[in-house]
Amino acid sequence: MSSDNSNYFIGRVYDPKTKGPTQEDVLLDSANLTTHCVVTGMTGSGKTGLCIDLLEEAALKKTPAIIIDPKGDLTNLVLHFPNQQPADFQPWIDPEAARREGKSVEQMAEETASRWSKGLAEWGIGKEKLQALAEAAEYTIYSPGSTSGIPVNILSSFEAPEIPFNENAEVLRERISTTVTAVLGLIGLSNIDPLRSREHILLSSLIENAWIHDTSLSLTELILQVQNPPMDRLGAFPMESFFPEKNRFELALLLNNFLASPSFQVWQQGQPLDIGALLYTADGGPRHSIFYLAHLSENERMFFVTLLFAAVESWMRGQRGTGNLRAILYFDEIMGYLPPASSPNPNPPSKVVLLRLLKQARAFGVGLVIATQNPLDLDYKALSNAGTWMIGRLQTSLDKQRLMDGLSSASGSTDIRTIDNLISGLEKRVFMLHSVYRSKPVLFNTRWAMNFLAGPMTRDQLAAANALAGVNAHATGAPTETVKPAQKTTSTVREGSGLTSSQPAIPGDIAEYFYPNNLGISEAAATAQFSGALDSEGLAYRPGIIAQAEVRFVSRQYNLEQINKTCAILEDPGSGLVRWDELVSSEVDKDRLEMHPLPKAKFHPVPSWLSDARKRDELKKDFLDWIYRSGGLKILANNKLQLFGTPGIPEAEFRRSVQDAVDKTVEEEIEKASKAADSKIAAMERKIQSQELEVKAAESTVNQRRLETMATGGAVVIGMLTGRKRSISSTLSKNRMASAAKDKLEAKKTTLAQYTEQLAELKKAKEELVAKVKEKWDGIADEISEITIKPTKSDIFPDIFAVVWLPYYIVEQEGKKIELAGFKR
């Protein structure tokens, strides 16, 4: 069994003559998966076991994975039992299966534990390997739309992105299109064409309009905007001509039916679709996130899978390109999600984003592994990007013929006749590996799975499975952030009083801006924990100060040249020192601040402190002094390698970069140190090869001399019997020659043995050399420190110091008018 860090051990070469595996391992280079992999085989072919083998290898190699599990089979990935005790297996034994065999659950557990231990031993997999698997990755089973596992919050799909819209318009429009297609599919619309569907165009325009203004939309906000859109026209047509109010109400009603459904409440809690957090732990370790979908309807599955694909694509586009395998996206049954053009529903919501992933994910190191038991329902042209195919036993000749036709159209260079011959009559757990990275296809027997293959789990078992994996099945808290989060908007609830319809004047020479109303009323109420009616009576502006400074950091030593901006919004300085650190807001683009109030808004009076120019100057000086005192920039560093992280890089990502640098250095040092050893090994192997030829030649000579001696001896005997004389000296000469040939053979064998021993010593010396290099760099990647770079006063430049009018929603509760902050800091 190979221990190469880049190879997945998936089985051994299968010999059709002996109908069993040989001793030759079949290894799959992990980098090959960046060009994607397709696994197909009928029920009972061993397809699930093979895919679990592959995911086990990914975990052992520290490769994270997102696993889509429509049937519940992949939940078995948490069933790894290093001790292989019957008590480990017993909770996962099917009582009905035990009853059918006339056995107790306890007896079945004992037999299963024994069978699993024996199977693993036959494949050279011991307790140490099982323990390594248990510790290799963090496993979690998610159950969208259910609290049986960890629920999934889909509302993050409607949140405004953290990246600027204008600079990423193409990517974000693709994400919007995919999200809208998924939503429309969930409410019953099918065969949606983004260029023809009025529903799709309207919803996409509403979300894009919100995101351009850095505003998140809840489903409630989206439904309300469908009825009353914030734009008058779509394209060249007025809104009423393009999509009349009556028809918009029908769409809003369909969306509201989903929103009002009690089952939808579960979709609003739990783990957000934060792909970084689903793939990596807080310290950068790999996660295998399993999405259990067996309980969902077909429409709900399509809805969630499409949103998940869109989230993966959005995360992927934010990563740097790489030729190595960064993560695996595994789909256990692709049927219906990537259908051919001849299918009754050839363009489900998932297909467009899946096609983009198949074409573009390779550049970002994301490998798709797609499994199916139905070769008839695949778009083989779309799968022409798949570089690796694993084909198991197929149910019918029609399945095989469709697969042959599909492979032929997907890859013109495929030797269909060879593949046809290989896959005919395959046994269980025997697959054909066809890869663009191999010169020819190969049959292999899948290895024994390290996890217990208990079969599909039910929803009732998910909590126990998560508990086994060390996860609280009812945890709904937010995951560890993988990027620096935006500061939460602080919403306060205040009584409304002293409002005027006219904007009060600010004394003195100071700029005035209006902060964008970028928080919907539903979000404002939720942030303020307001439980009253959401009928807004309009907006009221409160005056305050917005202060922003630019801090420049330049350091050749740390390869640093960066400009940071720090912004704070002050509504009331109070009587003591201003705590600027509690007032920090997101960086503001001056061009995004509005110059005019929203229509029909009201205004609060200007407080005395804000009317005092001297007080404003004091606040400005105090703000800049605070920036100087607290404006240090922290960077992560590995001094041994002289690697320094960019400011704000998550520690997990920096650790991965350092580990990559260490791995590269180790690889280079090993290559450099191994050159001489490899040369000696190659020379010795040539000597052994030459000596083996000499041994064969000597053996041939010995055999020849033996025959000559026997012939001479026979002639002497015949001569004695017949009275003919035969020279005895000739016989003796032949004997001496035979003896000399034997001595020469033994000498050459001795020399061959010496060479073989010397080769073993050379290889051992090389292994020790490699081990020494690895030992030298062991632990270096963990030597992470934090460096703080302080600015000088000359590095700080005031950017904005102005009066800002902040929008608040006016609502009524128990006869009192109160205000909810309508902006996000």
Task: Describe the protein's architecture and organization.
This protein has 21 helices and 26 strands. By secondary structure, it is an alpha/beta fold. The chain folds into four domains: 1-77 and 131-151 and 287-470, Rossmann fold; 153-269, no CATH class; 494-632 and 790-821, no CATH class; 652-783, Helix Hairpins. An eleven-stranded mixed sheet has the order 2-1-15-14-13-3-12-11-4-10-5. Strand 11, helix 13 and strand 12 form a beta-alpha-beta unit. The longest helix is centred in the C-terminal third of the chain and has 72 residues, at 651-722. The protein is elongated, with a radius of gyration of 36 Å. The model is unreliable at 474-496 (pLDDT under 50).
Shape: elongated
Number of strands: 26
CATH fold field value of the largest domain: Rossmann fold
Q: In angstroms, what separates the terminal alpha carbons? A: 56 Å
Poorly predicted runs of 5 or more residues: 474-496
Multimer state? single chain
Strand content: 15-25%
- C-alpha Rg, in Å? 36 Å
Helix content: 40-55%
Strand order of the largest sheet: 2-1-15-14-13-3-12-11-4-10-5
Within CATH, the superfamily of the largest domain carries the name P-loop containing nucleotide triphosphate hydrolases
- CATH architecture descriptor of the largest domain: 3-Layer(aba) Sandwich
Give the mean pLDDT.
85
Structural category is alpha/beta
- List the total number of helices: 21
